Amino acid sequence: MKKILIPTDFSDNAWDALIYAIRLYDDIPCRFFVLNTYEVMATGVNTTIHSSATKKLYEILREDSQKGLEKIEKYLNDHLLNDKHEYEIISKYGSLTSVVKDLINKENIDLIIMGTTGASGIKKVFMGSNAMRLIKNISDCPIIAVPKDYEFEEPELISFATDLNKLFTAEDLNPLYELLLIHDLNLEILHVHDEAKLSDIQKENIELIKHRLDSHNVSYKGIDLISTVSKSINEYTKTNKVDLICFANYEHTFIEKLTHEPIIKKVGFQTQVPLLIIPI
What we know:
Elements (H helix, E strand, L loop, with lengths): L1 E6 L4 H13 L5 E9 L13 H28 L5 E9 L2 H12 L3 E5 L7 H6 L1 H8 L5 E4 L10 E5 L12 H10 L2 E8 L6 H14 L4 E7 L4 H11 L4 E6 L4 H6 L3 H8 L4 E5 L1
Helix pairs in contact: 8-10
């Protein structure tokens, strides 16, 4: 049974991410862990959990967290019953990153799916904190980030953006391979270049990726650099009905090295389709 963690702050975008997760794995046995975390923020006066004011705030946050999760659980059980799916709600005190890390190890989480915006609705703030913080700090679990107002459609095309200089193992590419099998998808190996000619290593890696994914639905697509890599990718996805963009997230990230821009963050701010981030 696949184990999927869905962090929520009870925003509309978090709900969109939950529905996306359920529908993406509609025919796959899954256990969905719906997580809400809460913290009593430091005020500089008296922040010990034992102070009366802090303790009262802690109890309010804990109660709100539990009630919000129970509301979600009731809706899922009343309206989204699926013999292949199980739901578990988790309310935890602590930072999102630390709680998520603990749950990955404790529950053997296979995938995290979350929204790109928070309750504030300010995409940059959320991508700069919650979503980006997980992307930067979670090194052992893939993440799908779902943009605000995204409505699920049966996916047909994934673009795997890579500079083709990284050697990927079969295990690295497993999240992609799984989606190809589940949805009979087409996958494009998307390369943004300022030179049309590929090196011998890049050509070899194209064939290696195809071999690793063991699928006739994998093809190569090279696109020209338009001022920045993030702009090139976003423009391409807008005009080619891409349903999911995939990045491999390793030290400094391949495209960031190429153009000195924080590629995952910039694409996340602009993209209208979900992002799959594979930690390497």
